[in-house]
Design goal:
With 348 residues, this protein is an alpha+beta fold. It folds into 3 domains: 3-102, PAS domain (Beta-Lactamase); 105-179, Helix Hairpins, CATH 1.10.287.130; 184-348, 2-Layer Sandwich (Heat Shock Protein 90). Helices cover 46% and strands 24% of the residues. The protein has 11 helices and 12 strands. The chain has helices at 3-15, 34-39, 51-54, 58-70, 104-143, 147-179, 190-199, 202-207, 226-242, 294-299, 306-316, and strands spanning 19-24, 29-32, 74-80, 83-92, 95-102, 186-189, 211-215, 221-224, 249-258, 264-272, 320-326, 330-338. The strands form 3 sheets. The protein has a 5-stranded antiparallel sheet, with helices on both faces. A 5-stranded mixed sheet has the order 7-9-10-12-11. The protein is elongated and about 90 Å long. Bound molecules: adenosine-5'-diphosphate.
Length: 348
């Protein structure tokens, strides 16, 4: 084969968008493109003369042998160097062509979706089983004419139904926030919204002997999605009350600020003097269904989805959320939302 022919073949292989490797039928490497070097994790400067130099995964070497023997193309999926690869091996006249596609991201998303269905079903099972058991107990109590136990069972039945409703509600909220395309902003007075949402939690805070306070300007005009902003503030304040201790405080501050580039932003800060979060747990609290203390969360009606919903809602609005916490001392959540969108509001 002429040098020109070899160089043209190398150019051709390099021009393929997927990872591509071309081998002679006696296992010599004829060409390999940059994408294949990356996907196969071949270190720079490594020896690359034969098939076994570049195709280090045993299944790949086996597939190349099978395709060469049988002449039939073959597709296989392998996990290699922390990546999931889909590999197609076929004969090109008397040479073997190996095409490689990176499926790591698709695999990750698929896995997340599968985990979500498993976790959601598991979470739904608890209140559903509770309702079934209580309904049976109720029919026995009614049949045996024990009116004093009826009230208790009806109350527990109501609690389980409320838990189920909260879970379904949160699941739907999360799905809506995750799957929504471009958001439609509307003018929202954030100061009024924060005061209203906090006021709705005063009774609950009173019951738990927690003092709630709000600091906000008279009015903060913001272009956002009212329902989503309510969910953000409500979930953060609810958690700050739930994971607090009697006599503790929750302070909510709304401020107009500037980001590092001097662009206007609004900050919503929720500070509590509660139990705090272990630094080792912090990176996980925004995950769906993740709870630091599952028993406490369930006992207080938590679904494990609150912070995941908050993060999605904040990110949909182009913002960010940060948490700072000290165990046994308290937690501060800071939401930053870019406010510049308001400037392009038609009525401005
Ligand atoms: P949940 O429904 O369990 O409250 P979230 O997603 O809202 O679910 O929160 C996840 C976990 O993070 C909670 O179970 C709790 O362990 C922890 N957490 C959230 N907010 C606070 C807070 N303000 N103080 C201490 N722990 C918190």
């Amino acid at each position: 084969m002429s040098a020109r022919h070899r160089s043209r073949r190398r150019e051709l292989v390099e021009s393929i968008a997927q990872g591509a490797v071309l081998l002679s039928d006696d296992g010599q490497l004829l060409a390999i493109n940059t994408a294949a070097r990356e996907l196969l994790a071949i270190p720079p400067g490594a020896r690359t003369r034969t098939a076994t130099d570049v195709l280090t995964h045993p299944a790949l070497i086996g597939a190349v042998g099978d395709v060469r023997d049988a002449g039939e193309p073959m597709t296989l999926v392998i996990d290699h160097a922390e990546a999931r690869l889909r590999v197609n091996v076929s004969m090109l006249r008397d040479e073997v062509l190996v095409l490689i596609v990176d499926r790591t991201e698709e695999h990750r998303v698929e896995q997340l979706r599968r985990d979500f269905v498993v976790n959601a079903s598991h979470e739904l099972k608890t209140p559903v089983t509770g309702i079934q058991t209580l309904a049976e107990a109720l029919s026995v109590v009614v049949a045996q004419d024990e009116p004093e136990r009826v009230a208790e069972l009806v109350e527990r039945l109501g609690d389980e139904a409320a838990r189920l409703a909260a879970l379904v509600h949160d699941l739907l909220d999360l799905r809506r926030l995750e799957e929504r395309g471009p958001i439609e902003r509307e003018p929202v007075d954030l100061a009024e919204l924060v005061r209203r949402v906090v006021a709705a939690q005063v009774n609950r805070a009173d019951e738990l002997a927690i003092e709630l306070s709000v600091e906000a300007p008279v009015e903060v005009e913001f272009a956002g999605v009212e329902g989503d902003l309510e969910v953000v503030v409500r979930n953060l304040v609810r958690n700050a009350i739930t994971y607090n201790r009697p006599g503790g405080t929750v302070h909510v501050a709304l401020r107009e600020a500037q980001d590092e580039e001097g662009e206007p932003e609004v900050e919503i800060v929720v500070v509590d003097t509660g139990m705090g979060i272990d630094p080792a747990e912090l990176p996980r609290i925004f995950e769906r269904f993740y709870r630091v203390d599952p028993a406490r969360s369930r006992h207080t009606g938590g679904t494990g989805l609150g912070l995941s919903i908050v993060r999605h809602a904040v990110e949909n609005l182009g913002g960010s959320i940060e948490v700072d916490s000290r165990l046994d001392d308290g937690t501060t959540f800071t939401v930053r939302l870019p406010a510049s969108a308001y400037r392009s509001w038609p009525s401005q």
